[in-house]
C-alpha cells in the first residue's frame, strides 16, 4: 500500500493530530456497507478492534452482513433523504455514542453512449452517492471534528484525472465528491489564532478527509480494507486532503 499511509509509529497526543495507536476502540460508520467492499472493510475494522456501524438500504442484506461479520451494528436508512440521515444519527448516537470515522462506499456505475448518451436518468442515479455523502458528513461532522482521530474517506475514480465521453456523468459526480472532501479537509485544518494567540472557533482535533481512487474496485476489496484500517495508524496532518490511488499488486 502507499508509503504515505504506513508511517513509522509516532509517540504523541492524538488530540494534536499525531499518529494514533490504531482503530481499536474507535467507532466507525460504513455507508453503503452491504457491497463486497463494504463487507471487506467491516470485517477488517472488526478484526482490528473497532466498533462498526454498517448502513445500507436493504434490510435483508444488512441482516446477512450482521450474520457474516458478528459484532457489527446494522442500520437501514435512505442516505439520500436528509430526515432519514438525521434519524440515523440519533439512533447511532443512542447505540454507539459519537463516531470516529465515516467510510463512504455508496456508489455505482452507469454510462456509455458518448456525450449524447449521458442521460438525465443516469445522472440522477449517480448523483445519489454525492447527495448521500453530503448528508452523512454533515450529520456526523460534529463527531468527526471533536474526535481525537476523526477520519472520513471515500472511494473515487481515476477517471477524475482522465475522463471519458462515455463516463461523463459518472466522472462529474466523482469530481464533485472529491471537491466536497477537499472542503471537509479544510474544515479539519487548524483554525487561525487571534491576536492573543488563542485558537478561533474551536481547538482542532486529529481529523482527516481522505480520497481513495480506483480504476475498478473489483479485486481491490481487501486492499481497500487494509488501507481503511491504516487510516488510524497514520498522522492526521499528513493524511488530511490526500488522494491515494489503490492498484493491484
Structural summary, described in words:
By secondary structure, the chain is an alpha/beta fold. It has helices at 36-47, 59-68, 82-96, 120-139, 141-146, 168-188, 221-230, 236-239; strands spanning 27-31, 51-56, 73-76, 101-104, 151-157, 208-214, 243-245. It has a single domain, classed as Rossmann fold, CATH 3.40.50. A seven-stranded parallel sheet has the order 3-2-1-4-5-6-7, sandwiched between helices. Mean pLDDT is 88; it is low at 1-19.
Q: Uncertain segments of ≥5 residues (pLDDT<50)? A: 1-19
Share of helical residues: 25-40%
Overall form: globular
**How would a crystallographer describe the biggest sheet?**
7 strands, parallel
Count of structural domains? 1
Structural class: alpha/beta
Cα-atom radius of gyration = 18 Å
Strand content: 5-15%
CATH topology: Rossmann fold
Distance between the terminal alpha carbons, to the nearest Å?
Answer: 9 Å
DSSP summary: helix tally: 8
Write the layout of secondary structure elements.
Elements (H helix, E strand, L loop, with lengths): L26 E5 L4 H12 L3 E6 L2 H10 L4 E4 L5 H15 L4 E4 L15 H20 L1 H6 L4 E7 L10 H21 L19 E7 L6 H10 L5 H4 L3 E3 L4
Parallel strand pairs: 1-2, 1-4, 2-3, 4-5, 5-6, 6-7
Helix pairs in contact: 1-7, 3-4, 4-6
Amino acid at each position: 500500500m502507499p508509503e504515505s499511509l504506513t508511517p513509522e509509529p509516532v509517540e504523541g497526543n492524538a488530540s494534536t493530530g499525531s499518529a494514533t495507536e490504531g482503530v481499536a476502540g474507535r467507532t466507525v460508520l460504513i455507508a453503503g456497507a452491504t457491497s463486497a467492499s463494504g463487507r471487506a472493510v467491516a470485517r477488517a475494522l472488526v478484526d482490528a478492534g473497532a466498533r462498526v456501524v454498517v448502513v445500507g438500504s436493504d434490510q435483508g442484506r444488512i441482516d446477512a452482513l450482521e450474520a457474516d461479520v458478528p459484532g457489527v451494528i446494522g442500520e437501514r436508512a435512505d442516505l439520500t433523504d436528509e430526515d432519514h440521515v438525521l434519524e440515523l444519527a440519533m439512533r447511532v448516537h443512542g447505540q454507539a455514542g459519537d463516531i470516529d470515522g465515516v467510510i463512504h462506499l455508496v456508489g455505482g456505475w452507469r454510462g456509455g453512449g458518448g456525450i449524447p448518451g449521458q442521460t438525465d436518468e443516469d445522472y440522477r442515479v449517480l448523483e445519489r452517492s454525492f447527495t448521500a455523502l453530503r448528508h452523512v458528513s454533515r450529520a456526523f461532522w460534529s463527531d468527526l471534528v471533536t474526535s481525537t482521530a476523526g477520519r472520513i474517506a471515500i472511494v473515487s475514480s481515476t477517471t477524475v484525472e482522465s475522463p471519458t465521453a462515455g463516463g461523463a456523468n459518472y466522472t462529474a459526480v466523482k469530481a464533485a465528491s472529491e471537491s466536497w472532501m477537499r472542503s471537509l479537509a479544510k474544515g479539519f485544518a487548524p483554525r487561525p489564532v487571534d491576536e492573543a494567540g488563542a485558537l478561533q472557533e474551536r481547538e482542532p482535533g486529529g481529523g482527516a478527509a481522505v480520497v481513495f481512487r480506483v480504476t475498478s474496485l473489483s479485486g481491490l476489496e481487501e486492499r481497500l480494507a487494509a488501507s481503511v484500517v491504516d487510516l488510524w495508524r497514520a498522522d492526521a496532518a499528513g493524511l488530511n486532503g490526500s488522494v491515494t490511488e489503490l492498484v493491484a499488486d
